[in-house]
Design a protein that fits this description.
Elements (H helix, E strand, L loop, with lengths): L1 H10 L6 H32 L2 H26 L4 H24 L5 H29 L5 H30 L1 H18 L16 H13 L2 H16 L6 H7 L3 H26 L5 H21 L3 H29 L5 H30 L1 H9 L1 H8 L3 H8 L23 H18 L1
Helix pairs in contact: 2-3, 2-5, 2-6, 2-7, 3-5, 3-8, 3-14, 4-5, 4-7, 5-14, 6-7, 6-11, 6-13, 9-12, 9-13, 9-14, 9-16, 9-17, 10-11, 11-13, 12-13, 12-15, 14-15
């Protein structure tokens, strides 16, 4: 009993800090609101157009702001009060969603309205996401960083469970207008929850201007091959392995309707919660790169299973496996990136990660929607799942692979760093995994 209590206390260690608790409540409400608006808009687009291509175009509207404004948000996050910046984004998104609620209730909504709201919602999220992630290390001691990142992922996955499930029920029982009203209230609630944070959240300003600050961030990322490799690996998974925009099609094809759509949208959250719990139980594990790479490969297998599944329950299991494998690779990756980056650079480093993590999936929506319109939804998932493992092979350089194999609890790196060779010869995945096993194998055999 004492051991289990100690393990639970370790898993929830970051919640012992009051500022992080406030941040966690705000994050939960924000994440639920984001899942709810995305679920509702995808269903409404499909209801108005009955087109896979139009579903995919919502991804294009979401990807554009993330690819451009995340970088701007990173510079702002390293120069302004991060808490106030987050609140600005939450209030703006609340106003947007309540506007969409009014258009829907009055019957004046058109497809282009949904694209505009999606674009603006993505823009405000892109501007504030770097500040949200960069704030985390300031709220907790350094030893709990992996724990906090895992808890953040857990909160995100809970929202992925609750948001789509609540969305499906609200759409089925009350229609889309009331769903958007609840969504707007959730955004306002998240803004109120973060008010009590007392941790200083304004980084010390340097003498450089915004452009010089951006260039410094770009130089720092380029000089860390491990960060570049992790970002490229994540981009390959999210672009080629995108499935979210096709869930309304699978729900209709399997005869499950709005409720089935909500369950399929929530299933990855359930799986991600299990994956995050597994990572939480490991603590600050060694060899984070192995979890990242093999998590991506398992994700591709789950994607093919969803594509080939003839039954709703099996499709539901495949969706949950997608969430599990995504958590297993995502949490070690993000904690490593945060730990490598000094506090004065975290906003800009997070901006690059947010640009790809936020822009990659919507670009994947567009790709999967186009493929589904041409070949059908199952074929789109299979076609998308095939390139991702090869992308994971090609994402590393010798310098990055060396760091991946030796990842222990990470320490912030000094800045500036020595530059890497401009042209690096790629290493094969077979050689990389063999070298990794040479490091891990003796410890396994001793046990």
């Amino acid at each position: 009993m004492a051991q289990s209590q100690r393990g639970l206390r370790q898993a929830l260690g970051a919640l012992e800090h009051p500022d992080y608790r406030r941040f966690a409540v705000s994050l939960l409400l924000t994440s639920m609101a984001a899942q709810l608006v995305q679920t509702a808009i995808l269903w409404q687009v499909y209801e108005l157009t009955d087109s896979a291509l139009f579903l995919g175009l919502t991804g294009l509207a979401r990807a554009g702001p993330h690819m451009v404004l995340s970088l701007v948000g990173g510079v702002i996050a390293d120069r302004l009060n991060r808490v106030r910046l987050i609140q600005f984004g939450q209030a703006s998104n609340a106003v947007l969603v309540l506007t969409l609620a009014g258009l829907t209730i009055t019957g004046a909504v058109e497809v282009w309205h949904l694209y505009v709201i999606t674009f603006l919602n993505s823009a405000f999220t892109a501007l504030t996401q770097p500040a949200r992630t960069a704030l985390i290390p300031s709220l907790i001691p350094g030893g709990n960083l992996v724990n906090a990142v895992a808890l953040n992922a857990t909160i995100g996955q809970i929202s992925q469970i609750a948001g789509p499930a609540i969305g499906g029920v609200l759409i089925a029982w009350f229609d889309l207008g009331p769903t958007y009203l609840v969504n707007g209230l959730a955004y306002f609630g998240s803004m109120v929850a973060i008010l009590g944070i007392r941790t200083p959240s304004t980084p010390v300003r340097g003498r450089e201007g915004p452009w010089e600050s951006f260039v410094d961030g770009l130089r720092f990322v380029r000089q860390r091959p491990v960060i570049v490799s992790l970002l490229v690996l994540d981009l390959g998974e999210t672009v080629f392995g995108s499935y979210r925009a096709l869930l309304p099609i699978f729900a209709e094809a399997l005869g499950s309707g709005e409720i089935g759509y909500g369950l399929l949208s929530a299933a990855p959250g359930v799986g991600s919660l299990l994956g995050a719990g597994f990572i939480l139980s490991l603590g600050d594990m060694r060899y984070k790169g192995l979890y990242t790479v093999f998590g991506v490969l398992a994700y591709c297998g789950a994607l093919v299973l969803m594509a080939l599944s003839p039954w709703f329950l099996l499709t539901l299991v495949a969706a949950a496996l997608l969430g599990t494998t995504n958590s297993v690779q995502m949490i070690p990756r993000n904690s490593a990136i945060l730990a490598i980056s000094p506090d004065t650079m975290r906003g800009r480093v997070e901006a690059f990660r947010s640009m790809l993590a936020g822009g990659g999936p919507p670009l994947g929506y567009t790709l999967s929607g186009g493929l589904a319109a041409a070949f059908g939804a199952p074929a789109a998932l299979v076609i998308g799942g095939v390139p991702a493992p090869r992308w994971s092979r090609a994402s590393g350089s010798p310098g990055a692979n060396s760091e991946i194999r030796s990842w222990a609890p990470c320490r912030p790196a000094p800045f500036p760093l020595p530059s890497r060779p401009r042209y690096a010869r790629p290493v094969s995945f077979r050689a990389w995994s063999s070298a990794a096993y040479d490091r891990v194998g003796p410890a396994i055999r001793k046990r």
